[in-house]
Design goal:
Blueprint lengths: L1 H12 L1 H6 L14 E4 L9 E4 L3 H12 L6 H29 L2 H5 L11 H13 L13 H13 L3 E11 L6 E13 L5 E4 L1 H4 L4 E5 L5 E10 L4 E6 L22 E6 L7 E15 L6 E8 L11 E3 L5 E9 L4 E6 H14 L10 E2 L2 H6 L5 E5 L5 H5 L5 E2 L5 E2 L3 E5 L2 E2 L3 H9 L7 E7 L2 E7 L1
Antiparallel strand pairs: 1-2, 3-4, 3-6, 4-5, 5-8, 6-7, 7-8, 9-10, 9-12, 10-11, 11-14, 12-13, 13-14, 15-16, 16-19, 17-18, 19-20, 19-21, 21-22
Helix pairs in contact: 3-4
């Protein structure tokens, strides 16, 4: 299509070419014929080619057909050859220029890539990937059951109240002798009131030189120790945080709990994010020993809700989201968790907030380990020391001592308090926890080979 149009344009501008094709007044010239020929040489892609005669041939054919001798015919043929060469040169330049101007991206659409041959296992892998990874992933709204919705709502409403507590200890650098604060442990806690009080376990903050409290939004504040109770593994901290960050956990009661009741344990281990574990109450009125003093903690809640490392000090909630205990310990071999009941914790926290310490009735004695008393073949609590200014010393209880020859003289052995039998130290603590400061108790002791009842205030 481009060749005839270009030829026509050249014929209009060239006088020699126009004279060759100009119509004579006496004779109508005959136009040259264009013959369609095909190549006889076989090829892989047979094509038909148009044979276009050159200008020199056109000039010769026209002269022959006119049968008019012309002295300038040789000159005209030379001119035609020059024009023919010029035409070929222009065509070559136009094709060369078009190769640089043509859009490569558009032309690449016509490139046919042969299909890749894959092995059967590769085809299966590709098909599995394509079927399970659509180009547009549309996540339908998840449908939850009513109990699941209640659990999600409980978690979302109570997580702002649960904090992470980092225990920092002062360590001296061996080379520079500088004092450095090194994290030695972490645990969880929860906001108790709007005054910034935070409740956690005592073993979480034990031995700390500094404490950091991290809230759900990752904001961190310095904490001060208000008070602690080693015997019950409870401590109270205070942080100067904005009021909008302090969301106290609603306090419930633990007196009417039932075995089989659903419970939820929330923690904030390592300050990364909150965790939730669910379970049921496996047992009530259990007894464990304090990690700090070994004193028994009574009426402990046993649950199968996992209390993971770092969750100690977090809240144990009922299905209404009320606080019923503090997660305090877990027996690793069995995965059984224990929580201090909230009825015990509430009285301790109130005293710590008001007085900074817990006032608990004591006899003012030191007693021997239970194994030592068992070796003597008796049942009770052996008094090792009874200071004279203590309640037991003032009442007249006798301690264990040595005579002038170094022989051991056993002191009084407590066998009962207020008529309740005492077989070991745990029984004694349990009875005293039910008393108040200032109460008068009757202590029955085994002194030598006879028993005596001694009033102690």
């Amino acid at each position: 299509m481009a060749v005839p149009s270009l030829l026509h344009a050249l014929s209009l501008q060239s006088p020699s070419l126009s004279s060759s094709f100009s119509r004579s007044p006496n004779r109508t010239p005959k136009l040259p014929r264009l013959s369609l020929t095909s190549t006889s040489k076989p090829s892989l892609f047979p094509t038909n080619k148009f044979s276009i005669p050159s200008f020199h041939s056109l000039c010769f054919i026209q002269s022959k057909n006119n049968h008019i001798p012309n002295s300038n015919s040789s000159n005209n043929c030379i001119v035609s050859s020059v024009i023919d060469s010029f035409f070929i040169l222009c065509t070559s330049l136009a094709l060369s220029f078009s190769l640089f101007v043509t859009d490569v991206e558009a032309a690449s659409a016509f490139v046919v890539t042969p299909p890749r041959k894959l092995q059967p296992d590769e085809l299966a892998t590709v098909r599995l990937f394509q079927e399970n990874t659509p180009s547009v992933v549309v996540t339908p709204p998840r449908k939850l059951q009513p109990d699941e919705l209640a659990t999600v709502r409980l978690f979302q409403e109570n997580t702002p109240s649960v904090v992470n507590i980092t225990n920092l200890a002062a360590r001296q650098d061996a080379f520079t002798l500088y004092l450095l604060e090194v994290p030695q442990g972490s645990g969880s806690g929860f906001v108790w009131d709007k005054d910034g009080h935070v409740v956690t376990n005592y073993h979480v903050i034990r031995g700390a030189s500094d404490l950091k409290v991290t809230f759900a939004d990752q904001s961190t504040y310095d904490a001060k120790v208000v008070g602690f109770d080693r015997d019950k593994d409870v401590s109270v901290l205070r942080v100067d945080a904005p009021k909008d960050k302090l969301r106290p956990v609603p306090v419930g009661t633990s007196a009417d709990l039932l075995v089989g009741q659903k419970v939820y344990a929330i923690g904030n281990p390592f300050g990364l994010d909150h965790t939730l574990t669910t379970g049921v109450i496996s047992g009530l009125r259990r007894e464990i020993s304090s990690a700090a003093t070994g004193r028994p903690i009574q009426d402990v809640i046993q649950t199968d809700a996992a209390i993971n490392p770092g969750n100690s000090g977090g809240p144990l909630l009922d299905s209404l989201g009320n606080l019923i205990g503090i997660n305090t310990a877990i027996y690793s071999p069995s995965g059984v968790g224990f929580s201090i009941p909230i009825d015990t914790v509430s009285g301790i926290v109130d005293q710590l907030v008001k007085f900074g310490k817990v006032t608990r009735p004591i006899l003012g004695i030191k007693f021997a380990p239970d194994q030592s008393v068992e070796q003597l073949g008796v049942s009770g609590v052996l008094v090792l020391d009874a200071p004279a200014n203590g309640p037991a010393g003032k009442a007249g209880l006798r301690p264990t001592k040595r005579d002038a020859y170094g022989r051991l003289i056993l002191g009084d052995i407590i066998t009962s308090v207020n008529g309740k039998k005492v077989t070991n130290g745990t029984d004694l603590y349990r009875i005293l926890d039910q008393c108040k400061v200032g109460d008068k108790v009757t202590v029955e002791v085994l002194r030598g080979d006879h028993k005596e009842k001694i009033p102690v205030t």
